[in-house]
Amino acid sequence: MRRPALALCLGLSFGLATSTFALDxxxxxxxxxxxxxxVNALSGTVKGVVDANRTITPQEEQSIGNGLxxxxxxxxxxxxxxxLQRYVNDVGAWVASQSGASGVxxxxxxxxxxxxxxxxxxxxxxLVTRGLLGQMQSEAQLACVLGHESTHVLRHHHLRAIQxxxxxDALSNAVQGAIAYKGSNAGKQIGANLASxxxxxxxxxxxxxxxxxxxxxxxxxxxxxxxxxxALAAVLQNLDALNPADGNLQLLFATHPTPRARLDKIDxxxxxQLEPYASGVENTVRFQSFAKRYxxxxxxxxx
Amino acid sequence: MKTTSVRLGVGxxxxxxxxxxxxxxxxxxxxxxxxxxxxLDAASAGRVSPxxxxxxxxxxxxxxxxxxxxxxxxxxxxxxxxGSGTASSSGNSLGTLAKVLTTxxxxxxxxTGVKGLTSGEVTATxxxxxQLQKLDDYAISSTQAATTARAVPLKARQVPDIPxxxxxxxxx
Lengths: 303, 172
Prior knowledge:
- The complex is a heterodimer.
- Chain A has helices at residues 2-13, 19-34, 36-45, 58-75, 82-96, 130-133, 139-154, 157-166, 168-180, 185-196, 201-204, 208-224, 231-240, 250-255, 259-269, 285-294; strands at residues 107-111, 118-121, 125-129.
- By secondary structure, chain A is mainly alpha-helical.
- Chain B is an alpha+beta fold.
- Chain B is built from 5 helices and 7 strands, in the order αβββββββαααα.
- A 5-stranded antiparallel sheet of chain B has the order 6-5-4-1-7, with no helix packed on it.
- In chain B, a hairpin with an 8-residue loop joins strand 2 (32-35) and strand 3.
C-alpha cells in the first residue's frame, strides 16, 4: 500500500526527468521496492523534497561520496599495501590542504586494477588506480594528479554533475535515505546502495571545463605544496604517447578531453605563469621505493 | 653498508632504465630556442621550428631535454606535443581514439573484451563498506600531513590562483 504511493510521489517529484535520469530513477525505485524498511524510512522524510531550493549539506555530500566510494571499492578493492596507502595520504592530504578549505574529510587510496585512471568522490575521497601509479615517474607527478582530483572535490564537480542529470530531488532523496539510517550498519549499506545508483557519473564523465579547471587548479595546489607544477604536463604528455586503443585507457579517454586538448589548455591558461615554482621538488626517496614495486612499462605506445 | 649502497645504486639504475624505455618523440608546436641548460638565461644551443620532430631525453622543471636532428638542448616542455595528436602518430591510432571517444560519449561504452576496470564494473552496484572503513582508517589530518611534508623536505609556497574559466590568452 505504502510502496506504490511512495513510487508515485517520487515519480511526480522527478517530473522533469531526462532519459539518463529515468534510468537512475528506475534504479532507485528497484532498490526501494526491494527494501521495505527503506520505504518506511523515506516516507517520513520524503516531504523534504518539495523544497526544490534545498542545498546539499556537507554531511550529505560526504554521505553520497561514501556511497560512491564504497561502490568503486566493490569493483576494485584497495591494494593490500598499508605503507603505500599511508604514503598516498601523506602526499594527497598535504597537496589538498593547500586549498585552505576546511571541513573536507580527505581520504586517498590506491585501488587494485591495471586500469589507468583516478576518481574523486564528493566529500573528500580520491582513488588512484595501481595502473596510473605505475605510469608515474616522480612524486611531483603523483602530487599533481592528486591535486587535479582534489580540485574536483573542492569545486563539487561530481555532485553538480549528478544534480544536473538526476535532479536535485533525486539526490536529496538518496541522501535522506542514508541519513535516516545513520548509525546502523544495515542503513549504511542501504544508503551506499542508493548512492551508488549515481555511479554512472564516472562513466559519463564531467564537463570538459571541469577537467580543465581541475588541471589548472591542480597545478596551482601542486606548486603551493612545494612541487614542480609542470609535472602534470609531463603526465599528460606520457598519457598522450600511450596507445589510446589499450583497454586500460578506454575509460579514462572516454571520460576526459584528450591529453592533447588538456595540454593546449594548460599552455593557453597557465603558460609560463608557474615557472617561478618549477624548481620545486620533483622526486623523493620515498616515491622511488614505491616506484620500484609498482612501475609499469608494459603498455604499448603509439607507433 | 656497502651492500645497501650497491643495492640502492642498482635500484636507481633500474628506475633510470624504465624511464628510458618510455622515451618518446614529440613535435614542436611553436618556434623555440634550444638552450644549453634548462634556464631562460642559458646560452643558446640552436633553434627549432613548428613541425620539427624531437626525441625526448629527459624533463626538468618546465623544461624538456631533446634531440632535434643534429641539434640537442633544452626546450620549454609546453612547446612540444607528444603522441596521438602529433604528426608522428599513425592514422590508425587516431581512428581508434575517435572510436573510443564516440562510444564513450554515447553512454554505451563497450565493456566486452576490455581488460581492467570497465564502465560496467564501475556502475554495477556492489558497495563494499569494509573497504570504505579501511580507506577511512588510512586517512590522516592536514596537520599530520604537514609534519610528514616538512621531513621530506617540502616547503609550502604562496602561489596565486589562476582562473581557468575566464578567456585567457597567452602572449608567448
